[in-house]
Amino acid sequence: MKREAFKMYLKAGFEKEYQKRHSEIWPELVKLLKANGVSDYSIFWDKETNILYAVQKNNGAGSQDMGENEIVKRWWDYMADIMEVNPDNSPVSISLEEVFYME
Fold first, then answer.
1. Percentages helix, strand, coil for the chain, rounded to the nearest 5?
2. How many domains does the chain have?
3. pLDDT (tens digit per residue) in 79-96
4. Is residue 101 part of a domain?
5. Local confidence band at 63 (pLDDT 50, 70, 90 cut-offs)
6. Active-site pick, 2, 3, 20, 22
């Protein structure tokens, strides 16, 4: 099991909408993530910069590596209007290097 973290960019003015959409996350997306080994997944929001910091555990393929799946593509399309995205509507995300961990 590996831990990974990455950051994404929320567009200004969409903070509440982002939280709303995630509080209503699609059950089929959660099932897909879990079935592919993603667990202990959290997203933190820096209010000063509108940067989202995601942390998850996975068994190889993380959530950002599932872009060929139709459910993931639909989620990315659904979120594209409130986040900075790539041409395929995947969120612009930058991997973060772990520099400290305490169990």
1. 30, 30, 40
2. 1
3. 999 999 999 999 999 999
4. no
5. low
6. 22
